Each structure stands twice: as C-alpha cells, then as structure tokens.
C-alpha cells in the first residue's frame, strides 16, 4: 500500500540533506558557512525540527500546490513512493527484532534498461517495486529514484555490473562531479530507454565532449558526443541520473 507524496517542507528538508551529502561531504559547518547561517539553526532544520517560518512556508506552498524543482530541470513526477506495511512478512532472523518502521523505506519502481526513460515511466514498463532503506548513507537525501535491471545480454559494464544486476538511479543528480562516475545515459535523439555507462566531460576549445565508456572496453569502445551539437547544450538530454547503489547476484561470482 502506498501513501501520498510528502509536503513541500518535508521535501525541502530532504533536498537540503541530499545537497549536504553531495556538495558538502556531509559536513553541516561547510553548508552553514556557504549559506552564511548559524550551524545550530541549520542542524535543527536538517533534523526536521522546523522553525515557524518553515512551517508557514510549507503550509502556503502545499495550499498553492507548489513543488520543488531542481535548477535546470523541468517539472516531472517523483517516482518513489512512501511505504505502509500491510501484513508484512518478516524473515526468521528478524522475528524477535520487531516490525521495521515503514517511514524508513521508499518504494522504488523497477524497470529494464529499455524502459528507463527520463520522464513518466509507464505502468507497462514497471516490472515490480523495490523497498529501499532511506537511512543508508548512499541513499540518504535522494528522493526521485528509479531501479533499473541490466539487460540479459548487456555485458558492457562487466566486471562491475553483470546482466540482471539492479542499479538504483537518482534522476535528480545529473552533475558530473568526477570523471568516471556511473550514470544512466541516453544517445542523441533518444527520448526513452537508456543504458548504464561511465561518463566523462572533456573541454575542447568552445566545445564540451561527452564521453560514454564501459568497463568491458574490449567489446565496447568509448562513445564520444558533442554536448552542444548532439544534446542541444543540455546535460539533461544526455544524463537520466547517477547510479547511487547496486544489487548483484553473488551466487554467480
């Protein structure tokens, strides 16, 4: 059973925590200094101990139907859903530990690479839903996520990723923070689907080259595109999102 989406103030707090992890290495002092704000006050907001102004802004935004949209991105539906347990089955190892808290988890839609488009994911494309623990360090602060199953014959990322492995993609994170990060990407002109590749941006005079490359480079040579000529100078046309987590079938290794 799925609950309705979070309110504006809750989403703002989650996005601030996400920015804290990604841009400030999880150090609140750095974020407070960048904002010119008292670290103690920032800490209260990040922990959800809201101030009067945040509560007021949240109620006004909810009443107006406003939603947070990250810079450079148009509005799009948040794919993740909150969770509510209904007769949840607990494995024997956890029977004496008590029922897990539903608010600690997201339900994330699982699709194949061919169905991993940038916008609305159709109901037909969703194979299943995966529960994701929100407080895992790599997951904390990420909200608009998509689980993607590597295609059966896709060996381009071996040995890092194998066919039928599952990766978790943050669709709000398209920044190339370091060369060689793993992303879900599109080819020029592609509106749906995607493939998992490492990405590097290279400057050449007035042009930015977008390089997709695989871990299995013997069978999959790098693909080089122009950000300006091939992707209309919009990184969001090339990158669907960054891979932040992966599940792998260890019985095959």
The chain-level mean pLDDT equals 79
Count of spatially separate domains: 2
Using the alpha-carbon principal axes, give the shape: globular
Which CATH architecture of the largest domain is right?
A: Ribbon
Rg (C-alpha, Å) = 20 Å
The CATH superfamily of the largest domain bears the name: Umud Fragment, subunit A
Could you give the order of the helices and strands? EHHHHEEEEEEEEEHE
Estimated helix fraction:
10-25%
Keywords: Hydrolase, Protease
GO biological process, one term: proteolysis
InterPro entries: LexA/Signal_pep-like_sf (IPR036286), Pept_S26A_signal_pept_1_Ser-AS (IPR019756)
Organism: Desulfocurvibacter africanus PCS
Task: Describe this structure as you would to a colleague.
Helices cover 20% and strands 25% of the residues. By secondary structure, it is of the alpha+beta class. The chain folds into two domains: 63 residues, no CATH class; 172 residues, Umud Fragment, subunit A, CATH 2.10.109. Strands 1, 2, 3, 4, 5, 6, 7, 8, 9, 10 and 11 form an eleven-stranded mixed sheet that branches.
């Amino acid at each position: 059973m799925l609950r309705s989406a979070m309110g504006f103030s809750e989403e703002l707090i989650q996005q601030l925590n996400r920015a804290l992890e990604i841009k400030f290495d999880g150090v609140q002092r750095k974020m407070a200094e960048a904002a010119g704000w008292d670290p103690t006050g920032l800490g209260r907001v990040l922990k959800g101990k809201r101030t009067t102004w945040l509560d007021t802004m949240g109620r006004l935004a909810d009443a107006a139907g406003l939603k947070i949209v990250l810079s450079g991105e148009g509005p799009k539906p948040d794919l993740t859903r909150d969770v509510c347990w209904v007769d949840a089955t607990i494995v024997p190892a956890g029977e004496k530990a008590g029922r897990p808290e539903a608010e600690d988890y997201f339900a994330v839609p699982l699709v194949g690479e061919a169905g991993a488009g940038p916008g609305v994911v159709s109901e037909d494309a969703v194979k299943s839903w995966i529960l994701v623990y929100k407080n895992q360090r790599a997951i904390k602060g990420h909200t608009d996520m998509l689980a993607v199953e590597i295609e059966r014959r896709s060996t381009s990322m071996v040995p890092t990723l194998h066919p039928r492995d599952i990766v978790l993609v943050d669709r709000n994170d398209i920044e190339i923070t370091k060369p060689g990060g793993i992303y879900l990407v599109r080819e020029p002109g592609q509106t749906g689907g995607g493939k998992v590749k490492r990405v590097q941006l290279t400057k050449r005079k007035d042009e930015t080259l977008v390089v997709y490359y695989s871990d299995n480079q013997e069978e999959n040579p790098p693909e080089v595109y122009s950000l300006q000529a091939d992707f209309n100078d919009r990184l969001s046309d090339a990158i669907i999102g960054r891979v932040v987590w992966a599940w792998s079938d260890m019985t095959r290794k």
